[in-house]
Structure formats: C-alpha cells, structure tokens
Amino acid sequence: MDRNGLIVFHDACVVYNGLATIVESLNARDMSFHAYNLPDVLFVIEIGDSSIHNLGWVEQLLIDNHLD
Questions:
Q1: 39-55 mean pLDDT
Q2: What kind and span of H or E run contains 23?
C-alpha cells in the first residue's frame, strides 16, 4: 500500500496478537490510520484517507455494538 488503503481481517479473535503487532508497527511509523472491530469476527484497519467507518451501514455496526 502506498498511502491509502483498507485491510479487513477475518477471525480477529484468533489472530489478535498479530493484529496488535500490526497496529504497533503502524504507530511506530507514524502512519495515519483507524483500527476497529466489527461484529463478530472482523477487524478493520483504514490507512490514510480510506474511511468506511463513516458509511451508514458500517457506522450502525459500530454504534452501541456492545449490546449485540
């Protein structure tokens, strides 16, 4: 990925150590990104200007997802 991109991981609950390493690496490189879980097993990393968390259907998955 050059500047912008979106990575979605399946089975986040299984590969969570690897995901933590990726997030740490992005932080160490001072990269602009957002990372979050989607119910039930997805983990999303939005790099740069890639942004799906503002889309209505994704936002609904994020809001109050502790209730699901």
A1: 86
A2: helix 16-28
